[in-house]
Amino acid sequence: MRKVLENEFYYLDNFHRVLEWISERYGDLLSPQEHAFIGTFCALPRPSRALFVRMVMRKGTHFRASKLNYAEIGCPVEAARHLLPTGWLAQDPVITLDELFDLLLKPEIGSIFRLSLHEKGARKGEQLAALRADFGDPRPFSNWYRDSGDAVYSILVKPLCERLRLIFFGNLRQDWTEFVLSDLGVFKYEQVEFSSAARGFRDRQDVDDYLALHACKQRFEAGEDLSSVLEALPRDVFDNDWINSRRERLLFQIAQHVEKCKDWDNAYALYARCRFPGARGRAIRVLEKDGQYQQAHALLKQAAQAPESDAERQQIARIGPRLARKLGLENSRSRRPRPPQRLDLSLPMPQQDWWVEGVVRDHLMRAEAPVFYVENALINALFGLLCWRAIFSAIPGAFFHPFHRAPADLHSADFAARRDAAFRACFAELDTDAYRATILRTYAEKAGIQSPFLIWEALSEELIVLALDCIPAAHLKKWFERILLDVKNNRSGFPDLIQFWPAERRYNMIEVKGPGDRLQDNQLRWIDYCAAHDMPVSVCYLQWSETRA
Fold first, then answer.
1. pTM for this structure?
2. Under DSSP, is residue 511 helix (H, G, I), strand (E, B) or coil?
3. The CATH fold of domain 177-327
């Protein structure tokens, strides 16, 4: 934490950076209240601003002055004195018994409520439950605890600060710790040139729509009545693609929950109105579960004419014959994928800690043919390194703050189309020897920088050089084309291991399956794809020759 301590007010400086960034780029969509907050905040004494930011960044809304002990701020009561006239802070707030318990220590509870020795030994939750019946009415903290000698403050504008955080990050997943982790060098982010038009929200309605969706999501995750959640969920399509995609994802999650409850009618109705990838396939499956075979078959035929993805094509191939049998229809034969090479191993179970892929890797390892556990890391990394400049192109709507791990539209259907020229230029290098130098140069220059395709700790220069020596450029291009076709789904499913024969400039990818394990759908799709393009892939089935006592 040394770098943080060099500037004791690092968190305050970061908060000011956010306010300045928002004022410059989003001033036109801020409310009068938000404009007034920014203007007033900057005029306050530094200790008061620092105390406010500390309270914003901590959990909860009620704080005891004795717990706001920060050396750089000094006396919290004096710092709070300048905040009280703003209306952002309340002193001696009216709080419930539950809120009081969040502020008190167990000895204080025993003293205030004059608990018996037995009651003092109970857990805090048990004490709270026992007192609720007699102390149900909220009251000021000083009324609860007359002799505390402590002040309590409530921060009243956390929702406003959450809106500002949302406007800055474009989401509520990232928080103020991004600044600290970046300053410490824990996370490094690509420096992208931002245009004045690079904004996550175009107008105030976008912010309101996002917050409305977020509230619905919180209510759903809290287990509230689904009918009331769905009533609050906007039915109309938003005039913002990425916010609308959040709406579709939430609708899909609700539909999945309803399906798990075996409420087939409502599950189908939700899937039918949802445009999230996979919703149509789930709708077909729900109709089948409900015995609506004719309707399921009709929807399946519609999907077969234009599958939305390889995943849906795979699902159609699986469900189609089953529905045809149930309806007494002739079943058209679908192409059977070429089976991959099979490797059967029978090995003694290790005596020490082990993992299946590691056991197979160590068994196959040869000095002249090294084996690496890579799973999804290697091929994605080679793609990310070659196409770095395309992925981090500063196009409108892709980046709008300094802490992007990935473009905001990474999973959008038009992600590749919006960068078509840049990706074609990257892929063209695979037709010459230029790609090798580009990948190695990017690996050296961008080491440690956050990317959706790089797991830096899983990589080494040795591994990358071996891969470039042994994997033909034509194979890389085929993999990269498929990743780009559906980034969200095609980044996973690669085989666990890769073995290289440097002297022969060849390789083999190996998917490992332990006893009772089976190939997953995304793995089957990659294996089928590799087999169709003559890429060497094996599936290793491991059995134990003896069990450990």
1. 0.82
2. strand
3. 1.25.40
